[in-house]
Amino acid sequence: MKELDCRKQFCPVPVLNTKKAIEGGEKELSVLVDNAPARDNVKRFASNLGHFVDVVDEGNGNFRVNIAVNPDAKPLDADHPDSDAYAVFITSDKLGEGEPELGGILMKAFLNTIGDSQPLPLEVIFMNNGVKLACEGSEVLDSLSALVEKGVKIYVCGTCLNYLDILEQKKIGEVVGMFDIVNLLIGAPKVIKI
Where exactly are the structural domains of the chain? Predict the structure, then answer.
């Protein structure tokens, strides 16, 4: 079993190193990481590809992600069948520049309105200060919940949540890494950036 020491590496390096090892023909892989977001990113990446994953908590914030490569695994399919499909990429908790209060009002209105529009987005991806919208105290949590109920996927950047020290305040969405975000954006036929 090949061992990858990805401790002290920042997103997306642990996932990229795991991807490289799998593509290089490794059949069994043990990836060492030293934080929960890296653990979750590597686990999600390998699981989404259809590989067998087992996570071992080694204590002191260290985790071992054991991966048995599934020979029947298929590559991630980034194609969306609907040409009208789109993703919304939100990088701020305000819409537009200028008065912050107005930007907050506009963001709330945007998310309320997009939930009543057709077609709905496939996913809404939050990054940078945009992750604050998916956290406790956000005025748009109800709008985001309504989107989820309609089948829209919500993704929140784990690096951003950690940097802003608000990971524990996240209330909605799946925490993802840069590798996931890049693949979501590449796979969407259209992207609306806010």
Answer: 2-68, 87-193
* Residue range 87-193 in CATH 3.40.50.620: no
Q: Which residues are catalytic?
A: 11
Q: For 70-109, write each residue's pLDDT tens digit.
A: 988 876 544 445 567 899 999 999 999 889 999 999 999 8
- Class of domain 2-68 (CATH, top level): alpha beta
Residue in 30, 104, 111, 88 with CA at minimum distance from that of residue 63: 30
pLDDT tens-place string over residues 100-127? 999 999 999 899 889 888 899 999 999 9
Distance CA 168, CA 185 (A): 26
Is the overall model pTM greater than 0.70, yes or no?
yes
Q: Which among 53, 93, 56, 85 is positioned nearest to 151, based on CA atoms? A: 85
| Environment class of 39 (CB within 10 Å of its CB; exposed 0-12, middle 13-18, buried 19+) | buried
